[in-house]
Amino acid sequence: MSQELISGTIALILGDTYIGEMEDSALLELPGRRIAVTTDSFVVEPLFFDGGDIGKIAVAGTVNDLAVSGARPLYLTLAVVLEEGFPLADFERILHSVRDTAAGAGVRIVAGDTKVVRRGEADGIFLNTTGVGILERPLRLSSRSLRTGDQVIVTGYLGDHSIHLLSQREGLGFEHRVRSDCAALNHVVADVLDACGEDVRCIRDVTRGGLGTVLNEFAQASTTAIQLSQTALPIRPETAMAADMLGVDVLYLANEGNLCLVVSPDRTEAALKALHSHAESAHAAVVGSVVEGQPGTVRMTTQDGRERTVDLLYGAQLPRLC
Amino acid sequence: MSQELISGTIALILGDTYIGEMEDSALLELPGRRIAVTTDSFVVEPLFFDGGDIGKIAVAGTVNDLAVSGARPLYLTLAVVLEEGFPLADFERILHSVRDTAAGAGVRIVAGDTKVVRRGEADGIFLNTTGVGILERPLRLSSRSLRTGDQVIVTGYLGDHSIHLLSQREGLGFEHRVRSDCAALNHVVADVLDACGEDVRCIRDVTRGGLGTVLNEFAQASTTAIQLSQTALPIRPETAMAADMLGVDVLYLANEGNLCLVVSPDRTEAALKALHSHAESAHAAVVGSVVEGQPGTVRMTTQDGRERTVDLLYGAQLPRLC
């Protein structure tokens, strides 16, 4: 594939979700001056899976990063690194997925770039998406704003994305029973913020590092203690079984369509109501709360009634799931 | 290197050019609502060369893309894909270069991302930078606005970057005589626009595809004809010799610190004066003009007085120079 063919294919398939020009930069008029910016590269393996593919993850991941900062996602850039010989049909399938996910989330792709490297110099395809969103709400969502009594919510089953991809990679069989949760959640976030306003303290996309990492960052940033209930965690039995088999802890597995929210106690019901109105967060549940305790720590009451510390996980995490 | 070490290293070395936060997105206040956005991935080989490295190219390239659209570059994101085992010392050297180039250009790195892939799944390091700039001038620089009589300027010696990298790759010896022109040129562009305002029709960063490609795009977009003078092209004898040896045409070689400007005839002297006041564009020269002729074509008067067409180059270009 030549550069010209690749650029032409991208423009053709992205259709009206692509408003880039041939000039060097996209020129855009924003509806305000307060913006959010985020970037992410995607080196997912396998590229295609049940529930999505690298194209869907690349759009949804960056849309979600903007959304959880309180921004309305508007624009994405899309940069592609292709290994020579990458199948055109796979590339087109990924682009269709980029387009569909962008259209669903209501964002436009405004600029693109493609680099082709020789065989063996990349693993098929890597994507980068960088997103720009507009901050229209007066909110300042921050992990520093947690207070004792706040409730911790997760919006869906934990670990499914990682278990699905790991199982597909290794051929364990669980890939047919647990699918990826990959989804753009900006409409979900907008509804929760409409319902609860500044009673939402902060939101985080529970990707690399999993819920355990997110909650440790929350506890440290706010110098609070967080108490989890293991029985409250939404985890599918199949996912728990696969995690046991693989020797991994669901608390640290990456998700691609799961949010963690901290909400004031009196607006928790309103938040859950808003979440349950969306298919992507139909299983949202309160899993813990901010408590008096040693600042910066996360503790969990286990199924058998014991207490354990949920540490910040250092070192190697499972690679190439997001 | 673990993710934590990598993130820590990035934050430490980038210092006050890095204003990212631990939260998912950077929240920024812009001085206006009209912005420019551009993205670029960098898969440069070799990573280090005389005149720069992949870090300098990644910052300068995106800064230049914003600048030539008339924007003042403000913010960059930096996404890194690292091959497992990539030397920490090389990574730090690249980050220092990112910092120095960003500081020189007056831009901040506002968000970052790092992904590590296994050995053999990437070639050392790939970078992506995405830039946001603010459009403060009422100008609308566009390749569609060329008119007969306009003058075509290039700001420096052509082909040096490509010849240097190709020569270093192949060990041809020219790498000691020709160095890369890699540079951030936003201050140069600002001075030209201050001097000439809307008499600057358009500017383009002469990277992949070289001057031949840029001028063909200009001619097609504006449905004008462009006439070049080969003797006016600033090309070093060493570069011409190396290009001959390698069987490549300097007109299509990528540069990393070279602009092509089209300026109205009565402001050409003012533009050259502004350009000559900067070291990076001290050798700026008029190389041609917009003429009556077949719309969409580029012609060149050669050294021996003949006329040739400068075609749009289709198909394979030299890989991994930018």
TrEMBL record, chains A, B:
Domain PurM-like C-terminal: 148-299
GO biological process, alphabetically ordered: protein maturation
InterPro entries the record matches: HypE, PurM-like_C_dom, PurM-like_C_sf, PurM-like_N, PurM-like_N_sf
Residue span(s) of domain PurM-like N-terminal: 23-134
Any matching Pfam family: AIRS
Superkingdom: Bacteria
Family note: Belongs to the HypE family.
Designated name of the protein: Hydrogenase expression/formation protein HypE
Source organism phylogeny: Bacteria, Bacillati, Actinomycetota, Actinomycetes, Kitasatosporales
